Amino acid sequence: KKDDDNTIPHDPIAQEKTDDKRLVEYLQSHYYKPASQGEHFGIVDTIMNGETPLMNEVVTQEVTHNNIKYKLYYYMHEVGVGESPTRYDSVFVKYKGLKLDSVKFDERASNVWLHFAGSYDFTRRRASSGVTQGWKAGFPNFKSGTNISQAGEPIKFTDTGKGVLFMPSGLAYGNQGIIGIGANEPLLFHIELSKVNTADYDNDTILNKDEDLDGDGEVIDDDTDKDGIPDFADSDDDGDGTLTKDEKEGDDDGDGIPNYLDKDSKDSK
Fold it and tell me: Alpha-carbon distance 15 to 233, whole Å?
């Protein structure tokens, strides 16, 4: 008999309730302290002198993932002045990730590009879903900043979107965890949104958001020609030998399928 025969199966619904209780208790007992001059991020600290609990200042956002309703909490320090990303776009961001015990597991103090829609490794022939569901749901509440960079100097932005995302494990790394993060860990992320790119991952003139054919919020599972390469990374979505970017616009044969997704329509522009 194996030692793990009596392992209790993971119950994501019960875990959601457990995580939310932990997050609420945390938000009731902690407050936000803005970054001091020279610091990249603010601090979430334990209330000691009657500071305003974060629970009184965060926004509660309901997010459904895998048919489970989760609560994502976000604190908006500065909304930003530019555009908000969608869950399909790419963002130029700084961030710091912490567990609820204040242990840091990741940080990018300089801006880095991250692709919300995901990516595709052509060598391994494997798609990645990109960032956590908590990021995909939380970041659209913020706006980018203004690029005030000068020639020959480091890239610099002002009026960026800044805040903190507080997410249950079901919108983070679930019951698997990753290096530095255990299973079923609620997390918080300090974020700063500098720039948004309305993304077209494969440069085929079809935006990522329009490659989500089934409307489930993800693009890694949409593969028109069933060649194993999702449409958002496939330069020839319908596999007819004509690159998607070279397909004529419209629906030439009137079957309700646009030319770039219709193998029967091969005429190029």
Answer: 34
Neighbouring-strand partners of residue 192? 94, 162
Residue appearing with tokens 């970041």:
139
Q: Residues with Cβ < 8 Å from 110, sequence gap 6 or more?
A: 94
Read off φ and ψ for residue 170, nearest 5 degrees: -65, -20
Indicate the pTM of the whole model.
0.90
Looking at the structure, give the CATH architecture of the domain made up of residues 12-197: Roll (3.10)
CA-CA-CA-CA torsion for 51, 31, 83, 85, nearest 10 degrees? -160
Is the predicted pLDDT of residue 100 greater than 60, yes or no?
yes
Rg of the chain (C-alpha set) = 22
Task: Kindly give the pairing relationship between strand 59-65 and strand 104-115.
Answer: unpaired
pLDDT tier at 129, thresholds 50, 70, 90: confident
Strand-pair partners of 189: 97, 165
- Tell me the domain boundaries of the chain: 12-197, 200-268
Residue 48, classified by CB atoms within 10 Å of its CB into exposed (0-12), middle (13-18) or buried (19+), is: exposed
* Tokens encoding 133: 């569901």
State the pLDDT at residue 266. Answer: 58
Banded pLDDT at 6 (limits 50, 70, 90): low
Tokens read off for 38: 């020279």
Contacts of 131 (CB under 8 A, 6+ apart): 114, 115, 116
